[in-house]
Write a structure and sequence with these properties.
about 625 residues, eight-stranded mixed sheet, four-stranded antiparallel sheet, 21 helices, 16 strands, about 40% helix
Length: about 625
Amino acid sequence: MTTPRFAYAPAFDRNIGWLTEWEQQALRARRVAIAGMGGVGGVHLLSLARLGIGRFTIADLDTFDIVNFNRQFGAFTSTLGRPKVEVLAEMARDINPELDIRSFPHGVQPDTVDAFLDGVDLYVDGFDFFALDIRRKVFARCRELGIPAVTAAPIGMGTGFLIFTPDGMSFDDYFRLEGQNDAEQYLRFLVGFTPRGLHRPYLVDESRVDLAGQRGPSTVAACDLCAGVVAVAAVKLLLNRGGVKPAPYHHHYDAYAGRLVVSKLRWGNDGPLQRLKLAIGRRMFAAMSARAAPPAPSHAPLDALDEILTAARWAPSGDNTQPWRFERLGDDSVRIRIALSHARNIYEYRDGEPTLLAAGILLESLRIAASGWQRAMAWETEAQSDTTLTLRASFRPSRRVLADPLLAELPLRSVNRRAYRTRKLRENERAALRIAAGEDVVLEFQESVAARWNVARLAARATDIRLRAPEAWPVHRNVIDWDRRHSPDGIPAKAIGVNPATRRLMRWAMQSWSRLSGLNRLGATLTTAIEMDCLPILRSAATFSIRLAPAQDTRVNRTRQVLEAGQALQRVWLTAHRLGLAIQPALATLIFANYGETGSIFTTEMPLRRKAARLATAFDRAFAAK
C-alpha cells in the first residue's frame, strides 16, 4: 500500500465555500510574520497553515519547558529543551510540506526587525506579554512599511484583540507607553487590552497576578480563541475583503462570560475613562503584587517520590501549620517527623490528638498520591516522645496498584463556612461515606433541624469561649491571613465565614487584646458565633460526628488508632467532595468540651472556665447516647 502524497488543492479543499478557489490560491502566495512561538504564536502558525497560507517568517529565542504544557501547542515531553522555532516549523511542515518558512532562532532583535519583516504581507504579534520594548519597535516599523498588524492577548478564558492598519491609529498612540516606566507600561498594555474587564469576576486566585514580577495565569482556551480571531482577521486583511475595525476599536470576547464587547477608545489609553481605570489599576495591581504567591519552580520534580511528597501540601492541619517534615531515605522511602505539641497552643490537647489526626490525613494523602504512580504505600512508627512522632513510609512499585478514584480530589477538597445546600442527604451518599470510613471509625449523622440546631448551639458556645480566651488571641492573630485568598501558611480571612464588615472589624480588633476584649464585652462574640457556626450549620444538609470504633484487639497502640482514624477521615472528606458535597470540620467544640470536662486550666478567667464546664455537660448530653 502506497503512502498518500501531499497535494495543496485537496489538503485545503474544505476551506472552499468560505473562500473561493482564487482566494485559496492567493493565501498560498501570502507571507505572514509571527514573532513568538509560545502560547499564542505557536497556535497562530498552525491555524494559519491550515488556512492554506503558504509562507511564514517566524521568530523565538526560547526552548520548551514543563511550565509551557498548559497552553503551548508545541509543548510535549518529547520536545522539552528543544527550540520553539524548530519544533513549530516541523509541526507546520507536517501540515503542509510545501511551506516556505524563514526562521529567526534568536528572536527578533532591534537590528533584525527589517530582515524579519522583509516581504511580509501581515504581521501577527505573538510576543510574550512583558516584551514591550521590541513589540513597540516591530509595530512602529510595520506602520512605516505599510504592513497591517494584528495582536490578540489571551485573557482569562477569552481574548482581547486589536488590528493596526498603516492609515489608522498607531500602536503607541493607542497604548500611550512612551516615557513610562516598566510597571506603568505593563499596566497600560493590560488595561488597553481589557477596557471592560470581562475576565475579572472569575479570577479566583489573585495571588497569581503579579505584574511587577512579570507573572500571570493563562489558559489554553484563551490561546485557542486568540488564534481563531486572528485567523479571521488574516483572511479579511490578506484578501482585501474589508469589514475590519482597526484601532481605536478594541474587541474583547470572553467565552466564560459569554460576552463580546467592541469598544471605540477614541483617544486610546489617553481618554478620561481609561485614565480613571489606570488610576484604579495602579492601586489594585500594586496590592496584588504585594500579596503575590512565590513563583513555582521552573523545573519538573526529579522523580516519583518527589511527586508523591508534593501531595503533603494538600493535607489539612490545625491552623494550617503543617507540623511535619520529610527526610528522604532513598528512591522509595521517607522518614516523617511530626511535631506533637506547640508551646501555649490551647488547641493541642489529649497528647496532641488533633495533630495525630492531621498526620493520619497526611498518610492517606500520600497513599492515594502513590497509587497514581503504581506504588503501594506502607508505614510504621519508628519512635515517639512527648513532643515528636517519627514515622517511616515506603512506596514500593507494584503493577497491582491502580490509581485510587480519590486521586483527583486531593487538590480540590476545600474548607469553608459558607452556606451549603440544605437538601437531605441521599441514602447512596450516606452509604458511600460510611464505606469510605471503613471499620475503624463510626459515622453518625444529625440531619433534622432540631439536631442541627443542637450542634449549632454547641459550636457557638465553643466560639464564644475561643474568642474570649486571652490565650487564643495570639494564635488567631498570627494564623489568620487577612490579605491572601489562598494562604500558604495560614487561614484565609475570607474562609472563616463572616461578612466583609465583620471581617474588617475583626482585623482591626485582632491587632491588640484590649481592642478584642472591648468588643467582646459589647457582645461581638455573639454576632461572630452566629455567622461562623449557627448559620452555616443550620443552612446545611446535616452535621455528623465521627468516633473510633471499639478496638477488637485491646493491644492496639492508641497512636496508631488515631492515625488510622485520620486516614479514614481523609477518605470520608475526599469522598464527600467526589459526591459534590462539602465538609467543614468543627474540632473546637470537642476541644473546649474536653477542657471543661477535665477541668484543664487554659485561662485565668473563672467565667470562661465555668462556660467550658457547662459546654462539657451539654456536649455529653448531646452525644452520650451515640
